[in-house]
Amino acid sequence: LKEENASLRSKINKLQIFSETQADKMRKLEKKLEENKIKEEKEAQDLEAMVQHVEQNLQLMTKRAVKAENSAAKLKQENAFLQVQLKNYKTENEALRSGQAANLAVVKQNADLALQNLLGVITTSRSSIRQLVSGAESLQLVADLLKSIDRISEISEDGQ
After folding, report:
1. Is residue 110 within 8 Å of 89, Cβ to Cβ?
2. d(C-alpha 151, C-alpha 147), whole Å
3. Residues 153, 47: Cα–Cα separation, whole Å
4. Measured CA angle at 72 (ends 69, 74), to 5 deg
5. Sign of CA dihedral 3, 4, 9, 12
6. Closest Cα partner for 146 from 81, 71, 78, 58?
7. With 0-12 CB in 10 A as exposed, 13-18 as middle and 19+ as buried, what is 42?
8. Taking 70 as the threshold, does the pLDDT of residue 127 lie above it?
9. pLDDT digits over 32-81, tens only?
10. The pTM is what?
11. Angle formed at CA 44 by CA 43 and CA 45, multiple of 5 degrees
């Protein structure tokens, strides 16, 4: 009976040691799980902050694109007006050549001035159009970035 008792005590000691080992492992795993939860929460917050920043940039670029479009439309109108004005000056110039040679120098000067204005408007229009194209390319880049963020989120969700 003593031997059986000693054997049972030995088994109980072994089971207690095993139980303590398992409890330690469980505490370590719980701690690691908590650390992973905290890490994932921080990553989610960082990702959300990045998405908000990208959205703000997208709104800003959209405003710039709208402003550039409006500017381009205004410059096109001004360009059309100046072309009509140039045509009028040319017509006036032709009329002066045929009958009124005395005012020819003034008409030529007006036509040159209109031409200079027209060339300036054309140059400005080209610059605005380049800005508009650049803004559109930037918007495309932001859209591609948002698509890649969605893919990263999907991969993270699938991995868990």
Report:
1. yes
2. 6
3. 9
4. 110
5. positive
6. 58
7. exposed
8. yes
9. 999 999 999 999 999 999 999 989 988 998 899 899 889 888 988 998 88
10. 0.41
11. 90
Minimal CA–CA distance to 119: which of 11, 127, 64?
127
Identify the CA nearest to 120 among candidates 71, 68, 75: 75
Ordered DSSP codes for the chain: -HHHHHHHHHHHHHHHHHHHHHHHHHHHHHHHHHHHHHHHHHHHHHHHHHHHHHHHHHHHHHHHHHHHHHHHHHHHHHHHHHHHHHHHHHHHHHHHHHH-GGGHHHHHHHHHHHHHHHHHHHHHHHHHHHHHHHHHHHHHHHHHHHHHHHHHHHHHHHH-
Long-range (24+ apart) CB contacts under 8 A made by 144-150 are 145/54, 146/51, 146/54, 146/58, 149/47, 149/50, 149/51, 149/54
